[in-house]
Amino acid sequence: MTHKRPSRVPAVDAVLFDLGKVLLDWDPRYFYRDVFGGDEQALERFVAEVVTMEWLRELDTGTPVGRAIAEHQRRFPAYAEMIAMWPEGWPHMLRGEIAGSVEILTELRERGMRLYSLTNFSTDTFPIARSRFPFLSWFEDVVMSGEHGITKPDPRIYRIAIERCRLAPGQTVFVDDLQANVDAAREHGFHALHFTGPERLREDLRALGVL
Question: pTM of the prediction?
Fold first, then answer.
């Protein structure tokens, strides 16, 4: 008489990464700190009131940058000159890679893990990042908000990623620095991890048996 082996939970076979503040060290402060002459209080007021998450999402949906800037200048005329600096300043906001995270990405690649990215990113600025960071070419596909006019945590962009990247959410780890995006990914069945730093990410991936 033969006995059936107990069914096993499907192993993780793919990792879906956010980019900004997970693999790429990006922050408007890196550029605007000099613009504000080192006045940290004024800089933080500008970031909190002008360079808001809502405006960044507007840019990441693919709104033409010229139109987005003009509309934002009308909302914040006192900051019109600084808002106009956004396109020239953006490359300076992208300081570099987050080394510990890229080390993890390298290890996953060496293990043959399927690697993808789901990112809120403008199609205007992504070529700048891709030209500077070769590891961005390691992803089998990059699903960008700017291509679809939808940003995380909108459920539609997760469905696009699932279909386009041929993902089984129960076998896919999702990594993002924003809790709202993590929560939305969990709603779709992903093993979603809130990124707070490379060391914690490594621990979480080990707990899932991925590293």
Answer: 0.92
